[in-house]
Amino acid sequence: MTEMTVLAFALVAFVGIATPGPTVLLALTNGSKFGVRRATSGMIGAVMSDFVLIGAVALGLGALLAASEFWFTVIKWVGVCYLAFLGVMLLRSKGTLDVALRSEENASGSAVAIFLKSFLVAVTNPKGYLFFSAFLPQFIDPRGPQVEQYAMLALVFAAIDFMVMFGYAALGSQAVRLLRKSGALWLDRICGGVLLTLAGSLALYRRAST
């Protein structure tokens, strides 16, 4: 794998990641509610999901989902339900800062919840597995060691993912500071609506015929 291949992969990955999706929307809302530092646990959860997805694709799970209607449907509907749940929760939010910000006792549990929320959003989306299955092999040299190449691409993708999410979290944090409580309320409403839209699009998503 050449440096130009890695650079091309990084550019394409950046465009794909920067396009608003479930994990960056969660980074945005987490930044608005908890601040950038607390939102970092969600970013770590999303990054961990990157390694899980890419590792699964390297082991052939992406090909399994492309071939199996049953398992594709199972993972798809788990993802749909979870995205819809998060969207509804944001729509019902009152736009106030989380209680955990005022209670050190709840800080650790809330960090775990933020981590799991971002992690689960990504690993229950079958489009991620299919995307990586179609995307990653284009940058893999079949003549070279496969494990090292997948590991390199995973590290590059995870680093870009973290930086983009950090930017969204910072944007959310600054937006709420400028707009105060009404800003948090409307940000929750907008992101909740987008998450419900993404859940709907995932529900309508069909596995490509083989």
Short account of what is shown:
This protein has 210 residues and is mainly α.
Question: Overview of this structure, please?
Answer:
The chain is an all-alpha fold and 210 residues long. The protein has one domain. It has 8 helices and no strands. Helix 5 packs across helix 8 (146-204). Mean pLDDT is 75; it is low at 96-109.
Tell me the strand percentage band: under 5%
Task: Give the distance, in angstroms, between the N- and C-terminal Cα atoms.
Answer: 29 Å
Derived from helix and strand composition plus strand pairing, the structural class reads: mainly alpha
**Any low-confidence stretches, pLDDT <50, length ≥5?**
96-109
Roughly how many Å is the radius of gyration? 18 Å
* Largest sheet report: none
Mean pLDDT: 75
Number of structurally distinct domains: 1
How many helices? The count is 8
Coarse morphology? globular
In total, the number of strands is 0
Notable characteristics:
single chain; 210 residues; mainly alpha; 82% helix
Give a topology summary:
Blueprint: H1 3-18, H2 22-34, H3 36-58, H4 61-67, H5 69-92, H6 104-123, H7 126-135, H8 146-204
